[in-house]
Amino acid sequence: MKINNAYFTRRKFLNSLLGGWLGAVVVSFISPIVKFVWPPYKEPDEVKLAVADYAGMKPDEVKTFAWGNKPGIIRRTKDAGFIAWVGVCTHLDCNVTWVPDKEMFYCACHLGWYDKNGVNVSGPPPRPLRRLDVSVEGEDLFVRKPEAGAKA
Amino acid sequence: MKIDLKKFAAWFDDRLALTPIFKYMTKKEIPQHEHSLWYYTGSSILLFLVIQIVTGIMLAFYYKPTLEGANDSIARIMTEMPLGWLVRSIHSWSATFMIAFVMIHMIAIMLTKSYRKPREATWMTGMMLIVVSMIFGFTGYLLPWDDLSLSATKVGTNIPAAIPVVGKWVTQFLRGGDDVTGDTLTRFFIFHVCILPLVIFAILIVHILLVQKEGMSVPLKDEIAKKTVPALPFWPNFVLREVIIWLLLLGTLLTVSLLLAPSLGPSADLLAPAPKGVKPEWYFLFLFQTLKIFPGNIGPVTGEFVAVVIILVGILGIFFVPFLDNKPETIKGRLFTYLTYFGVIYAIVFSIWSLL
């Protein structure tokens, strides 16, 4: 049935209404499923380490720590400071390793090389290793994500 | 009481009405010509699929899909369970054989151009089956949870992240978070034993029904010449020949599985550096090598992105090839034949290169 001057029939109107409701019901079921399947896991904002474990490092010595579920890398600098990176290749996410003879970081998956400052020098890595901030606060060594906006 | 089997069968047929299917099978004919051998590849794939299902269920009885338990449970299957090492070896080798036959099946169809009208949908469901089979292989590769499988999975799940907007989301879905963790392992197990089997059966049913609906294709030149090709009855002549091939393949599979059982590396450590010699399963090697030769950055985008786009375009091109190669008897058709040869040679050369 179509009322005079109407744009659509009553059947079409009711079917659209019904379809809209059904769509809304389906979406209301999908959104919790999506939320469940994509967990809100984030990497840590900071990791607390003990200064005692790292204080004895010689210049250019490298140690690893757990940055959440990934390896973190910490290197002693010449002036007795620390530099830290996420120890994951910027190409395809493999864990990198420190090669002491060459003083470089190496990724075995696709033969990527980074120099001791974490800068990609050879192979497929498109970016330097991700830098993390390090600060010594009393007995604790904090490794933090760089402040938003501050480029590593 | 004497059971009358004929009555019993009639009772079932009354309810299920299967007679037309049996009648069809006895009437079905398989054309005989110089390319008939390729007809046997389809049922060989089915043979390996059945072996995968049986051995896969057996392994799942003892496998534990957790960060702590996975590697140990496979070590236990291999050392404590009677013939457990052989069951794992057969599962691993049968996967290789299955993928190999899937590829032979596909290349044979490309070269004989059997995907031409009216079999486009058969081809496309076949392509979906290849992709699903490869995802089966990819998810299965992580399950032993040793250092090689962990690194290969980190690389593999990071590849979608190169695609703008949706890529990151796909990577998070595959990993169950931003990183590969124990959750990834559990998730891959569920993909491997629950979701992918459902998907592969759904597509396989359509694929096989389409093959029955259209019948076997005959060579292009015979079709153009409207020549009547001699044929072999499907039942029992063709099926019995298939059985001969199955037995040969089964013998080969068992021999290889006995002599070359896969090893098991130490349990994966999420924080350990990637081991030397990380490589995926052999059927991903040419893609792995393709990724490796791209430099870090090409102009404003990463080399990885360019590589992923090229690979995606290639896959889509193969998926839609029945529509691109729509005049198979012309020079355009010959061009697609050359492209197929090029693709095969590319895959072989790049696979070998990645091993050097």
Structural class based on helices, strands and sheet pairing of chain B: mainly alpha
What spatial order of strands do you see in the largest sheet of chain B?
A: 1-2
C-alpha termini separation of chain B: 72 Å
Average residue pLDDT of chain B: 92
How much is the radius of gyration of chain B in Å? 23 Å
The count of β-strands of chain A is 10
CATH class category of the largest domain in chain A:
Mainly Beta
Q: Give helix and strand order of chain B, one letter per element, not per position.
A: HHEHHHHHHHHEHHEEHHH
Q: Biggest sheet of chain A, open or closed, and with what strands and sense?
A: 6 strands, antiparallel
Query: Globular, elongated, flat, extended or rod-shaped: what is the shape of chain A?
Result: elongated
* Share of residues in strands of chain A: 25-35%
Q: CA-to-CA gap between the ends of chain A? A: 68 Å
Question: Helix/strand-derived class of chain A?
Answer: alpha+beta
H/E element sequence of chain A: HEHEEEEEEEEE
